Amino acid sequence: MEKSLKITCIPGDGIGPEIVAEAKKVLNRTGEIYEFIPVYTDILMGGASIDACGVPLTQEAIETAKSADAVLMGSIGGDTTKSPWYKLPPNLRPEAGLLAIRKALNLFANLRPALLYSELAGACPLKEEISSRGFDIMIMRELTGGLYFGERRTVEENGVRKAIDTLTYDENEIRRIAVKGFDIARKRKKKVTSVDKANVLDSSRLWRAVVEEVAKDYPDVTLEHMLVDNCAMQLVKDPAQFDVVLTENMFGDILSDEASMITGSIGMLASASLNDTKFGLYEPSHGSAPDIAGMDIANPIATILSAAMMLRFSFDLDGAADAIEEAVKAVLKDGFRTGDIYSQGCEKVGCSRMGDLIAERIR
Ligand code: NAD
Question: Is 257 noted as a catalytic residue in this protein?
Answer without folding.
Answer: yes
